[in-house]
Structures are given as structure tokens and as C-alpha cells.
Amino acid sequence: MPGMPPFPPAAPKSKAPLVIGLVAALLVLCLLGICAVGVRAAMVYNSARESPGGSAGVAQPGPLRTTPPPPSVGDTYSPPEPIPTTSAPAPLPARIGQCVSVSATGSFQGIGNCNGTMGTYRVVSVDAAQNACADPRSAYTTANGYRLCLELHLVRNRCYRFPNGNGWVVGAPKCKAKGTVHVIDIVPGASNGDRCTRDYRWNRWYRFTNPTVVYCVMKY
Fold first, then answer.
1. Res 101 pLDDT > 90
2. What is the pLDDT of residue 82?
3. Region annotation Disordered: residue ranges (predicted)?
4. Distance between the two ends of the chain, CA-based, in angstroms?
5. Average pLDDT, the chain
């Protein structure tokens, strides 16, 4: 009003109530947090007591989940296939043209010679398959898996033993012994003894085929 002194300024508002309110709110929040922690601890404790074999505050380990091992991989290595081999053929017991010795039963005795000292047959063919001889009338023997086709080969002035009937001619260990024959003459291609020598004495002739030949002999 006119003539009246002005009102004194308003006293500044105090901030104390605001600070007190904030502090109170913080205390309430802290109390609520502590309570929540306490409730959670009580629940864990009770759960541990109810678990069989459990102890307070200790969590029991559960079954571990394991990753199954990878399936075993078999040995994929396989050795290389063996290369088929063929065994080497047995050595030839004799060659074509050689003279061989046989026993009185026809068993192969070995390679002889063609001069009459050893060996009474000459080889005309050697067959590993042991098939028939080219001439079915040929004599033959077997040795080392081979068939040796033979022809009789006697030498003049040599002594032999002839078989009685069919059989094998073998060398005579002693000439002029009983049953031996001494070859006096040889007539290839003859059919009888008409062409035997007249210069020397002989008393018998023998004709063989394959090859065809007549032996003029002195038989003791």
C-alpha cells in the first residue's frame, strides 16, 4: 500500500525434506533387496535339505553329458593282389636226337650216347603234355613230366639183351653171356635176313619197325 514499507523477501525454501525423502527411499529399497536375498537363500537351503543325500548349501552334481566317440573307422588298407605266377617247367630229361638208357621194364635211366656204349633208344620227340606219339607204334617212356617218344638204336659189334616177346632192349653188361646177342650187321628197310652180310657169321635176325630195320646177330 502507498506509504507502507515493502514486504520483506520470502525466506528461501529448505532442501532438507527432499534429502530426507531420498534417504528414506533408498533405505526401503535396500531393505527390500536384503529380504529378497534372504528369501532366495532360505529356498536354496530348504531344497538342499529335502534332496536325498544332499548337504546344506552344496549342489549335487548331476550326470555328465558326454559326447559319444566317433565311430571307429576300419583299416581301409588292403594289400595289392598277388601277381599270379607260373612255376617254371621242369628241365627236359633229354633232347631230340640224344640216345637214352632204359631199364628192362622201360623206366628212364638217363642220357647215354649213340655209339653203343650206353643207350639203346634215340629220342624222336619230347612232349610236355604227354600226348600220344606221332607214330602210335613208337616206344615211349616218361620222365620229369615229359613223354619221350623213342626209336630203337643199336650199334654194330655191340652186345645187347633182347626181350622174349614184347619188351625193351637193354645193353648187355657182358658180351657173349648166355641170352645176349652180338650185332653183326644192320640192314635198314629190310623185311627179312636175306640181305644180311655173308662175310661174317650170324645165326639169327630180328626185324623192328619205327624205323624198319633188320639186325643180323649172333645169339648166345
1. yes
2. 77
3. 50-85
4. 198
5. 78
Contact between 206 and 190 (Cβ < 8 Å): no
Conformational region of residue 199, where left means phi above 0, alpha means psi within -120 to 50, and beta covers everything else? alpha
pLDDT, position 151: 95
Q: Round to whole Å and give the CA distance between 195 and 111.
A: 32
Q: Over the stretch 50-72, which tens digit does the pLDDT of each residue have?
A: 444 444 444 555 556 666 666 66
Say if residues 216 and 184 touch (Cβ distance below 8 Å). yes
Cα 73 vs. chain centroid, distance in angstroms?
A: 27
Identity of the residue numbered 46: N
pLDDT for the residue 61: 52
Residue 154 Cα to chain centre, angstroms: 51
Edge-to-edge strands, sheet with 99-102: 108-111, 99-102, 121-127, 146-152, 139-143
Domain coordinates in residue numbering, the chain: 92-153, 156-220
Element holding 44 (H helix, E strand): helix 16-50
